């Protein structure tokens, strides 16, 4: 009996000695910081006191990760090895961010599981509000212009609609999520990235390459996951207002409240207005679309004893935009006297996340969206409605060295419009199941395999596999290999705005089959810790994607038509990219990237460069902080190579390829006031616009209803003295923002 008591006491002492009483202090080099500290392994959050300190008792010694949000709004991760019964550590937060700083950020988009970015088998790029503030924009669509390999593409000279290209692939190949939910798709592809309040964005995760094995259709070229802030950590009050010399006004408002001990509420409002018609290129059309837009976002989180998450979010979006002839007003909407493109958009979103109260980690998610678009393109009406309901359950389980994810999803979509292609409303229901296994062979080698099964009523069974490999050298170099397939179910008129704008006839030659892709990409990451507080990081990537059943708009076969059909051949995209980040003593930060790519199609043994796709591009952001002056200077820009452009006729005098061009910006930010920031600068320093060295941008802008165009027996425009180039009205010859140099000034307040 005494022996049992002795061993029991010995075991108690042993357990006691393994405990760690930890005291932390959070500062930003100058002041203590009151914030929340998330302890990853314990899955608990601790609030710092007035003096910046916090206490926590760990049951065991070992390695722990601490996530802390700094004043700029991004999360820093600290890794500590706790070995003694009492430990103390001071967490010093950076005031800026770069990809170097974010190497140990927790990411979820690559594998749908939280993992350190450096340990993810799928390369994930992370961008925070600090990065986007270096070139402030009124929406996330424009904000992505300084991300290497990502291009906000303008598709219409009149209404300025656009989409996001990743590695040269068009917008419909890019999957956009909000908090991991597929909110932006189908009808909202063109407008869905407008109106997301920037003040509520915690970070944006970007995965380049197919992710259909986890996310299904549309995740062929890559995905963008916009992650909103947790109400528990967001600023209590946040205001960001800026205006430009062109008359644009953008306002972001944020409010975070503690409703009760267990309920936290976050609200954000974005309002953008531009109502100043400008025609600097003298074609009698507005250079920039006029817009009146409001977006209201609400998010509520509920704390529970089980530490399981429960969150609900809603968003309402309304936009009134128009572009056209300078003398257009609403009295001319839908008529043939004055040309205008007028679009009213109403949109509701509801999304939620619930971790089921089981011992196992089972998560459910759902989203419901309704999108109503009332549009007039000249005298052509386009009235469309789309309702989407989505739900999924997934089980996150660790078994030995296996990290499993098993899930099921279901997507319902109702789509209806007044076009000839949709005589009746279309309803689809796509059930899915998916499985993923990440296996750690040892500390240096890891493997991942995944498989997804979808069933579509028209296309039947669709299977998409995925494979990934990660290797980390003794020096910390990381190499990743990813391979897999993707698929995309096409919603033609919801995605192709060019099919509605202008005088070209839209021809759909056949029942369109789903596109399929086969992809492989290699990624290599290396970090140098140099002397004098200088850190350098380089990330190189190479990729190849092969497409079958591609649906590429054909502008070439007939200048009066846009022809849609499955490609009788194949399409491919291949390229290499390099990102370089440098940080020196927290004062100088440089982020630079370059991409070389070839996006083309092969049909009848003829290779053709894809329309509106550049051969090379580059981006950069250079920031320097003068500490004594509380002043930061940001110089940002991009560079794009020639793109093939859609001409209307063989006599069309416009350039068949765009010229190499660059958009550059500079900004000064003063942070000498408590809670306040003042910022201002110049956008498009070189005053470059796409009409440079072109006789005109919009074909037949003087006759947008083609009243004076003469046609031959085949319906092709004839060259006449009044129309010497044989043109019809066409606004699709556009490849960059048609807005020149402008100044801006803004104020930010965070409390």
Summarize the structure.
It is a multi-pass membrane protein. The chain has five helices and 41 strands.
Number of domains: 2
**Tally of individual helices:** 5
CATH names the topology of the largest domain as: Maltoporin, Chain A
The largest sheet is: 22 strands, antiparallel, barrel
Known CATH architecture of the largest domain: Beta Barrel
The CATH class name of the largest domain reads Mainly Beta
Helix proportion: under 10%
Structural class: mainly beta
Report the portion of residues in β strands: over 45%
Query: Mind telling me the C-alpha Rg?
Result: 27 Å
The CATH homologous superfamily of the largest domain is named: TonB-dependent receptor, beta-barrel domain
The coarse overall form would be: globular
Mean pLDDT, to the nearest integer, reads 85
Q: Would you identify the regions where 5 or more consecutive residues have pLDDT less than 50?
A: 1-17
Note the gap between the termini: 62 Å
Number of strands: 41
InterPro entries: Beta-barrel_TonB, Beta-barrel_TonB_sf, Plug_dom, Plug_dom_sf, TonB-dep_rcpt-like
Protein name: TonB-dependent receptor
Domain TonB-dependent receptor-like beta-barrel: 274-685
Membrane topology: Multi-pass membrane protein
What does this structure look like?
The chain has 751 residues and is mostly beta strands. The chain folds into 2 domains: 77 residues, Carboxypeptidase-like, regulatory domain (Immunoglobulin-like); 580 residues, Maltoporin, Chain A, CATH 2.40.170. It contains 5 helices and 41 strands. The strands form 7 sheets. It has a 22-stranded antiparallel beta barrel. A hairpin with a 4-residue loop joins strand 26 and strand 27. The longest helix is centred in the first third of the chain and has 17 residues. The N terminus is likely disordered.
């Amino acid at each position: 009996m005494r022996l049992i008591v002795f061993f029991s006491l010995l075991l108690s002492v042993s357990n006691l000695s393994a405990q760690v009483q930890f005291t932390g202090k959070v500062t930003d080099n100058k002041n203590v910081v009151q914030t929340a500290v998330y302890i990853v392994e314990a899955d608990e959050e601790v609030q710092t006191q007035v003096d910046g300190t916090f206490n926590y008792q760990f049951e065991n010694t070992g390695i722990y990760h601490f996530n802390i949000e700094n004043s700029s709004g991004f999360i820093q991760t600290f890794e500590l090895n706790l070995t003694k019964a009492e430990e103390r550590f001071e967490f010093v937060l950076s005031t800026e961010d770069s990809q170097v700083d974010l190497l140990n950020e927790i990411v979820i988009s690559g594998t749908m599981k939280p993992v350190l970015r450096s340990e993810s088998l799928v390369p994930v790029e992370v961008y925070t509000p600090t990065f986007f503030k270096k070139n402030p924009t009124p929406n996330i669509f424009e904000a992505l212009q300084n991300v290497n390999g990502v291009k906000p593409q303008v598709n219409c000279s009149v209404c300025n609609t656009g989409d996001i290209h990743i590695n040269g692939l068009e917008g419909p190949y890019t999957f956009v999520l909000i908090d991991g939910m597929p909110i932006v798709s189908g009808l909202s592809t063109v407008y869905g990235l407008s109106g997301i309040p920037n003040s509520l964005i915690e970070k944006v995760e970007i995965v380049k390459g197919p992710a259909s094995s986890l996310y299904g259709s549309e995740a062929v070229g890559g995905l963008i996951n916009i992650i909103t802030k947790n109400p528990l950590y967001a600023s209590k009050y946040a205001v960001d207002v800026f205006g430009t010399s062109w008359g644009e006004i953008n306002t972001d408002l944020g409010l975070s409240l503690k409703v009760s001990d267990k309920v936290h509420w976050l609200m954000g409002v974005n309002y953008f207005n531009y109502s100043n018609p400008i025609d600097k290129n003298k074609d009698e059309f507005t250079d920039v679309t006029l817009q009146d837009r409001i977006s209201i976002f609400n998010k509520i989180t509920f704390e529970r004893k089980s530490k399981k998450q429960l969150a609900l979010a809603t968003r309402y979006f309304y936009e009134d935009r128009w572009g056209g002839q300078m003398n257009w007003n609403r009295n001319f909407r839908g008529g043939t006297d004055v040309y205008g493109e007028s679009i009213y958009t109403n949109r509701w979103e509801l999304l939620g996340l619930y971790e089921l109260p089981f011992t196992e980690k089972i998560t459910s998610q759902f989203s419901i969206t309704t999108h109503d678009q009332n549009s007039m393109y000249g005298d052509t009406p386009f009235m469309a409605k789309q309702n989407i309901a989505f739900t999924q359950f997934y089980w996150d389980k660790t078994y030995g060295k296996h990290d499993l994810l098993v899930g099921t999803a279901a997507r319902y979509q109702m789509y209806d419009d007044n076009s000839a292609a949709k005589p009746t409303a279309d309803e689809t229901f796509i059930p899915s199941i998916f499985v993923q296994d990440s296996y750690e062979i040892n500390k240096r080698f890891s493997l991942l395999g995944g498989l997804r099964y979808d069933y579509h009523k028209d296309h039947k069974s669709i299977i998409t596999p995925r494979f990934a490999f990660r290797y980390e050298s003794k020096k910390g170099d990381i190499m990743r290999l990813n391979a897999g397939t993707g698929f995309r179910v096409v919603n033609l008129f919801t995605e192709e705005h060019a099919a509605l704008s202008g005088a070209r006839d839209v021809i759909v030659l056949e029942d369109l089959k789903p596109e399929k892709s086969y992809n492989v990409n290699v990624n290599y990451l290396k970090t140098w810790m140099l002397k004098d507080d200088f850190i350098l990081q380089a990330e190189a990537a190479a990729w190849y994607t092969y497409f079958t059943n591609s649906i590429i708009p054909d502008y070439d076969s007939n200048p009066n038509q846009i022809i849609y059909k499955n490609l009788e051949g194949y399409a491919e995209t291949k390229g290499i990219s390099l990102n370089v980040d440098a940080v020196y003593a927290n004062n100088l930060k440089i982020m630079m990237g370059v991409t070389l790519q070839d996006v083309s199609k092969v049909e009848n043994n003829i290779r053709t460069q894809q329309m509106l796709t550049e051969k090379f591009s580059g981006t950069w952001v250079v920031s320097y902080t003068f500490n004594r002056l509380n002043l930061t200077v940001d110089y940002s820009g991009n560079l794009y190579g020639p793109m093939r452009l859609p001409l209307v006729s063989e006599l069309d005098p416009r350039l068949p390829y765009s010229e190499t061009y660059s958009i550059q910006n500079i900004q000064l930010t003063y942070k000498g006031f408590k809670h306040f920031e003042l910022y201002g600068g110049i956008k498009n320093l070189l005053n470059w616009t796409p009409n440079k060295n072109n006789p005109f941008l919009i074909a037949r802008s003087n006759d947008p209803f083609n009243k004076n165009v003469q046609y031959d027996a085949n319906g092709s425009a004839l060259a006449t003295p009044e129309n010497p180039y044989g043109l019809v009205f066409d606004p699709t010859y556009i490849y960059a923002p048609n807005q020149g140099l402008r100044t801006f000034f803004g104020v930010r307040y965070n409390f």
